[in-house]
Design a protein that fits this description.
Elements (H helix, E strand, L loop, with lengths): L1 H9 L20 E5 L3 H13 L4 E5 L7 H5 L11 H9 L4 E4 L10 H7 L2 E4 L5 E2 L12 E3 H9 L15 E5 L3 H11 L2 H4 L6 H8 L5 E5 L11 H8 L4 E3 L9 H4 L5 H15 L4 H9 L2 E6 L2 E9 L2 E13 L6 E12 L2 E4 L3 E2 L18 E2 L2 E2 L5 E3 L2 H4 L5 H21 L11 H10 L7 H17 L10 H9 L1
Parallel strand pairs: 1-2, 1-4, 2-3, 4-18, 6-14, 7-8, 7-14, 8-10, 9-10
Antiparallel strand pairs: 5-15, 11-12, 12-13, 16-17
Length: 482
């Protein structure tokens, strides 16, 4: 790493940029700007760099550190999912790629300024907003979005001061996707399981003191429509010191419907049925009887109101639903019944939401995406998008990889056909660096990130963790400047 940083330093041509930028290959090369350094941004850059030997790619990121939701979204006890960072590091280290962190596009520099500097812009900035529940009481103390809760235990600087109150017995999570199960698992896992992960120390300390012993994971539809995958379900089923707590009636008729569902859904449902309905073997019976914590799915329920006591969340009122139709297309319809569930912690995991970045960029506020056709932003030549801002917040990292490759292919097709004119010379980062310098914005390049990475890794070694993350932008910048 030190050798790489030294070589990078030798090539530095932009003294104000922290960690040093790299000289452009050629002033006449096609210059592409990618906004956002999560999986969508890196996969788009990777495909562009591999496909053409003349393309130069600059990646701009709001935070001083790269990798987006791989760093701040993936559960700390899923280190294998974070291995994609190795691929992204290779891309960032490519001679025709530069990373500029600590640059807030839309604020520090406008999209129009980027369009004048680059031949094309790819917007890959993800979904940093929350979908609202739209019910009374959702802003009470004790109610959190899953995005913020995950950001808290994963060290997202904006969530550092969340300090959730974990003094209650029961938590209710609204939503049944993988993020909801991640949150449930982190709330209920023995802290000794988490001590060797990159979970932040403040979160680990809070979880060690947590009194949460029961987590209900609520969905508006039924077992055949649940959004999680089998891996996450199996982790819940096998969670130490924890037993499942299901409602048998929720699974009526499910076995009969299994013959018509695809194999992944069938395996997932079979595991749910086994967990909910089958009498466990002696060993599993004993394990469950000794468990001090429990978790369970609650199906056919929608939030109506968060109930308050003493100015904070004390329960949630749920509408009871029935399904119309079948399979993925089944619709939840209100029955008119409601039920109240006492709880002191409510976590809404009903989806992330992209936000508009700049008034010059078209944005569909209803769908919360940039309107596009195969990644080409509608009515905006030279603008492209990839990842969640293109599709909405769906799928896993592999899904994002494929949709980012599709966007890169669209861009390359436009270059080949002449629909994207790359014949004129563009200054790229040279002019943007000058603008940022005038505005007092000091970018962090990839070698600056490597300094942060090195400090975090060494801090983690002390306590047997892969890393101990720096938790504020200020700390990150101090290390990058060192």
């Amino acid at each position: 790493r030190s050798k790489f940083s030294f070589l990078l330093h030798q090539r530095c041509q932009t003294p104000f940029v922290l960690g040093c930028g790299r000289a452009s290959f050629s002033s006449s090369n096609p210059k592409i700007c990618v906004v956002g350094s999560g999986p969508a941004g890196f996969y788009t850059a990777q495909h562009l760099l591999k496909a053409r030997q003349d393309v130069e790619v600059d990646i701009y990121e709001r935070l001083p550190v790269p990798f987006g939701l791989v760093r701040f979204g993936v559960a700390p006890d899923h280190p294998e999912v974070k291995n994609v960072i190795n691929t992204f590091t290779q891309t960032a280290s490519h001679a025709r790629c530069n990373f500029y962190g600590n640059v807030n596009v839309g604020k520090d520099v406008s999209i129009d300024e980027l369009r004048r500097a680059y031949h094309a812009i790819v917007l890959s900035y993800g979904a940093e907003g929350n979908r609202s529940m739209g019910v009374p009481g959702e802003n009470l103390p004790g109610v959190y979005s899953a995005k913020d809760f995950v950001g808290w235990y994963n060290g997202l600087p904006s969530c550092r001061e969340l300090t959730p109150d974990l003094s209650c017995d029961t938590a209710v999570i609204l939503g049944q996707g993988n993020v909801a199960l991640d949150v449930a698992r982190i709330l209920l896992a023995p802290t000794k399981m988490l001590k060797s992960t990159d979970i932040t120390q403040p979160a680990l300390d809070a979880l060690a003191q947590s009194r949460v012993r029961r987590v209900l994971i609520v969905g508006r539809r039924g077992p055949l429509q649940i959004a999680c995958t089998i891996k996450e379900l199996r982790e819940m089923v096998n969670l130490p010191d924890c037993r499942p707590e299901m409602v048998a009636a929720d699974f009526e008729g499910v076995s009969e419907a299994l013959k018509d569902v695809p194999r992944p859904r069938k395996r997932l449902t079979e595991l749910m049925l086994k967990t909910a309905l089958e009498t466990p073997g002696e060993k599993e019976q004993e394990r469950r009887s000794k468990a001090s914590r429990s978790w369970g799915f609650r199906f056919f329920r929608s939030p109506v109101e968060v109930l308050a006591s003493g100015g904070r969340a004390a329960g949630i009122r749920l509408a009871v639903n029935r399904l119309e139709g079948s399979g993925d297309g089944a619709q939840a319809v209100l029955t008119g019944e409601v039920e109240d569930v006492p709880c002191g912690l409510v976590i809404s995991s009903i989806g992330y939401r992209s936000l508009p970045i700049d008034e010059s960029v078209p944005f569909d506020s209803r769908r919360a995406v940039i309107p596009n056709s195969m990644g080409r932003v509608q009515q905006a030549a030279g603008l492209y998008c990839s990842g969640w801002v293109k599709t909405g917040p769906t799928g896993v990292i592999a899904t994002t990889m494929n949709n980012s490759f599709d966007t890169a292919r669209s861009l390359l097709e436009d270059m080949d056909s002449g629909a994207l004119d790359v014949s004129s010379t563009r200054p790229g980062s040279q002019s943007i660096s000058a603008l940022l310098a005038e505005r007092g914005v000091k970018a962090v390049t990839f070698s600056g990130w490597e300094k942060i990475d090195d400090v975090e890794t060494r801090r983690g070694e002390v306590s047997g963790k892969p890393r101990e993350k720096l938790l504020t932008v200020q700390e990150m910048l101090q290390v990058a400047r060192s």
